[in-house]
Design brief:
Gyrase A, domain 2, globular, 7-stranded mixed β-sheet, alpha/beta, single chain, binds zinc ion, Alkaline Phosphatase, subunit A, 15 helices
């Protein structure tokens, strides 16, 4: 059977249209979004599939951020291989904090690129445009566009046009569940019109940042998704989904926030700007998390002080893991040249910011929910077929196993 090699792995040719979906921020498990919605009778398709599908909880790559994990999923590798380790990083060449949106930062080929070269027909649709460039790197024939800029999609750049007419939907707002719904609506119409081999859909976690599992808004969102999963399944597609990360609330019952302003803490202890804390979750879309995440990196001028700083950070309440550069390469498979001298995560109840004066909390309308640490590293893994049980020998499943499971297991 025809197969494709990429990044040291071999993938079998899809026997039917295989759709892999990254359901951004879908905290899994009995108290997670999907199982809660299923138990409330709001995901009839998922309920009907449980006995005849593969449905597991796995782990994401670290940090539990969106771009990092989308790139892990679509390359089948960890950040030390593909190079994307946050939305932001401190570029040593430029000497400043830099957005990691550009595809020149991606060091591995995507599974789509390899399949396209082998002649596969592919479509990649993302919610936010920030991901489109990374996901679409080196694609020449595949349909590739974001719902955020669906109105601008054209044959030359995106290999598709008139997407609003196709979906019969207006251009969605960037901060809305419509942004994700548009992706599914477009996929249903595209599948009707042409025979594709691989489809990748990547939603946004706007809803998950805003509300907890079981809330009306979350339930409406997953009910909507369930309807589209059913439609795509009925069109004969293999449906597979995972998530880039989970999501945890960082607010106490009295409304107070569990925040660590790490730059302020380190300035107080070691002197102003002795350490430079980089919040790598920072991106141009800050409304839903205010740039608070559960993972930051730190740069030090004086490398002799690293162990002293590590020791101090470990004493701060809410901190979970503190690692040196070498340790984070080993434990979290980080790209050594992009993560600074120290890597810090907070526990599932806390989020980390830079300086109190840097973060605009007025934009946060709901209790803070965010991700980045180990507390948000559980993710769902679903395949609409019961696969050979030999997959269990892989041990803990990772979200970046999803193409392997979808294509290599019958
Ligand atoms: Zn995400």
């Amino acid at each position: 059977m025809k197969s494709v090699n990429v990044n040291g792995k071999t993938y079998s040719w899809p026997t039917k249209t295989t759709i892999v979906i990254c359901l951004d921020g879908s905290e899994p498990g009995p108290k997670g979004y999907i199982d809660t919605a299923i138990s409330m009778g709001l995901m009839p398709f998922m309920k009907s599939m449980i006995s005849k599908s593969t449905y597991e909880i796995g782990k994401c790559a670290m940090p539990s951020f969106t771009n990092v994990n989308n790139m892990s999923i679509v390359t089948g590798t960890t950040p030390d291989v593909h190079g994307i380790c946050g939305n932001f990083f401190f570029d040593p060449e430029l000497g400043k904090e830099t957005l990691m949106n550009d595809d020149s930062f991606l060091r591995a080929s995507t599974i789509f690129e390899a399949f396209e070269k082998a002649g596969a027909k592919i479509a990649v649709i993302t919610a936010k445009d920030k991901l489109k460039k990374l996901l679409g790197k080196n694609l020449k024939e595949a349909i590739c566009f974001s719902s955020e800029k669906a109105d601008q999609a054209n044959l030359k750049d995106n290999r598709i046009e008139n997407v609003l007419e196709l979906t019969k939907k207006p251009l969605p707002e960037v901060y809305s569940s419509d942004l994700s719904e548009f992706i599914f609506a477009a996929a249903v119409e595209i599948v009707k019109k042409q025979k594709l081999d691989l489809i990748y859909l990547s939603t946004t976690d706007y809803i998950q940042h805003k509300c907890a599992p079981g809330s009306k808004m979350a339930n409406d969102f997953y009910h909507m998704i369930d309807g589209y999963l059913q439609k795509l399944y009925d069109q004969g597609c293999e449906i597979c989904f995972t998530a880039d990360h989970g999501m945890k609330g960082k607010t106490n019952e009295d409304g107070s926030l569990n925040l660590i302003y790490l730059q302020d803490e380190l300035d107080k202890k070691f002197g102003k700007d002795f350490c430079n804390v980089i919040c790598t979750i920072t991106d141009p879309y800050v409304v839903h998390h205010g740039s608070f995440g559960s993972f930051v990196t730190i740069y030090l001028e004086d490398k002799n002080k690293i162990s002293e700083v590590v020791k101090y950070i470990k004493t701060i309440k809410g901190i979970d893991i503190v690692l040196s550069n070498d340790e984070s390469v080993k434990k979290f498979n980080q790209p050594k040249d992009r993560i600074g001298d120290i890597v810090v995560t907070s526990d599932e109840n806390f989020a980390i910011g830079k300086k109190e004066s840097d973060h605009d909390l007025t934009k946060l309308k709901e209790p803070l929910r965010t991700h980045g640490g180990m507390g948000e590293s559980d993710i769902p893994i679903f395949l609409s077929k019961k696969i050979d049980q030999s997959y269990k020998s892989k041990g803990v499943l990772r979200n970046f196993d999803i193409f392997d499971l979808a294509l290599n297991y019958g």
